[in-house]
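ok so i was messing around last nite and threw this chain in just to see what happens. nothing serious, just curious
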Amino acid sequence: MDNRIYGYARVSTKEQNEARQIHALLESGIAERDIFIDKSSGKDFKRENYLLLRNRILREGDLLVVMSIDRLGRNYTEIQEEWRYITQVIKADIKVLDMPLLDTRANNQNKLDNKFIADLVLQILSYVAEKERENIRKRQEQGIAAAKAAGKHLGRPKATYPPNFKEVYDLWTNKKITAKKAMEEMRLKRTTFYKLVKEYAAKK
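result:
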């Protein structure tokens, strides 16, 4: 059986357009029927068409092509696991168009060298991604600490009682108006209304 070349494209939402990825995959010589597309987050690999491609279609000696590594996924720990599964268990190859070093095929070099280089690049990318996550977390923590020190309130602003709250509340509790009418009079949403009612009743 001849080896096949498959393309994989991913966008995070249905509103995003995968056309640029499709064009790049077609330009690299992949038939349109062999391109698999998911409109799903890259946080994990629980994606319908990716799993179909990996589990039922890819065979030993086939080539999987993606435009960039983040189209495969955004969790670099899981990317490494998937990379090893495809290259070591299935024994297929992977090529990343915008990063030539991520190409496990033999190309005027020993195939083992290519796999080693690709694995090394993935390790570095994983390390950089993890460090960036740590830095983002630290910056967030520092920002929160600085805001607290400055006396700033973080999160959603606390709901305040409208000026006519007690008057309307008394009418409602005495069953002279409905809850819907009370909300309209106070100009409050249902959740805010009942939250304030609960707080007010607890104080009485």
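not much to say yet. Residues 165-203 form one domain.
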